Amino acid sequence: MGLVVQNLSKSYFQGAEKLSILKNLNLQVATSEIVAIVGSSGCGKSTFLSLVAGLDQFDEGEILIEGTSLKKLSKHQMTRFRAENIGFIFQQFHLISHLTAFENLALPLQILNKPYSESDIVQKLDEVGLAHRLKHKPTELSGGECQRLALARGLIVRPKLLLADEPSGNLDHETGLKVMNLFFEKARQSKTTTLLVTHDLDLAQKCDRVLHLKDGRL
After folding, report:
1. Which of 91, 110, 120, 164 could be stapled to 116 by a disulfide with Cβ–Cβ 3.0 to 4.6 Å?
2. 45-67 core/surface letters (b: 16 or more CB in 10 A; e: else)
3. Residue 217 covered by a domain
């Protein structure tokens, strides 16, 4: 099983008031399955992704990624596990502005001390249609090109789990459609277990399953 979430709960305090965001949430995602999570704004979709990514701590429950329990990892171990096993694609791209497309793609491999060749990076850029833009920085790329670069970066370390938070949210409809077609092609080609948070129901229907987050539960 790629991802197992058991009885997950998360709350925040707003002054003296305790706000329950997620309540005994359960989810199982098979390895290589692509699951969409939809729900109204503020329902906890991004909070859920942050917990699965180990970027925030949950109050109760359990999260396992390919059998590894997140709550049993130390902070240092979680950082390493995240870098090696979890890929991210964000609405805001989160590319490093002073690095070229080539350098943005090579960076995750450098951080993990993974060997790579220049041709490896060029090939990955070519797969997302950016081989001719390898020396360009994000400010010199279009929104669609930035998101294609972000997709390649999210998959460069061959993660066990890919998390995508509104990846087409900053793109116009036509560009978003092209980028997301590429997203599904690459996720299925690499057989990467994927969680996609989106408000776009048409996009969600392209996933293997669609789950609605409401009142803290799926």
Report:
1. 120
2. bbbbbbbbbbeeebeebebbbee
3. no
pLDDT in tens, 87-139: 998 878 889 999 999 999 999 999 999 999 999 999 999 999 999 999 999 99
Distance between CA atoms of residues 83 and 22, nearest Å? 25
- CA 116/CA 152 separation, integer angstroms: 15
Whole-angstrom distance, CA of residue 32 vs CA of residue 1: 9
pLDDT tens digits for range 65-94 = 999 999 999 999 999 999 999 999 887 888
Contact 22, 3 (CB under 8 A): no
Indicate which CATH number applies to the domain containing 195.
3.40.50.300
Predicted model pTM:
0.91
